[in-house]
Amino acid sequence: MDLISGLFDGPPPRAEFPYIALATGASLDWSHKGGVGRELSLALTIYDDGETAARLHRVMALVEEALEPGLEDASGWQIITFDFRRTRILRRATGPWSGLMEYRARVLKH
Q1: How many whole angstroms separate alpha carbon 13 and alpha carbon 6?
Q2: Is the dihedral of CA 86, 6, 25, 71 positive or negative?
Q3: C-alpha distances in angstroms, 90 versus 5, 46, 98?
Q4: Which residues of 85-109 are buried (b: 16+ CB within 10 A; e: fewer)?
Q5: HSE of 72 in the Cβ direction (CA atoms, 13 Å)?
Q6: Domain ranges in the chain?
Q7: Can you give the pLDDT of all 110 residues of the chain as single tens digits?
């Protein structure tokens, strides 16, 4: 995605706009009788300093399109479901636009 300056593990100190900050949320038990499982929350926040939210909306649409097919399995885990949860766009009076995108993954240990 050429529109973003980078993907970061949390908000970086001096990144160019727009950029994406990744955060992991709650990890819940999703185990079953025969195996270990987790339900994971994933939040992506896109920050943009544009006068309007137009570019932010474009970036969010591209992110959603890129994640539509899901994610590759992580080492030792199988992704069973990967679901879109919600989006939210906010702007503080003195700060940049922020677009929150939340997803949920349910995984089982190999």
Answers
A1: 12
A2: positive
A3: 20, 10, 5
A4: eeeeeebeeeebbbbebbbbbbbbe
A5: 2
A6: 7-99
A7: 688 999 999 889 889 999 999 998 889 999 999 999 999 999 999 999 999 999 999 999 999 999 999 999 999 999 999 999 999 999 988 899 999 999 999 999 99
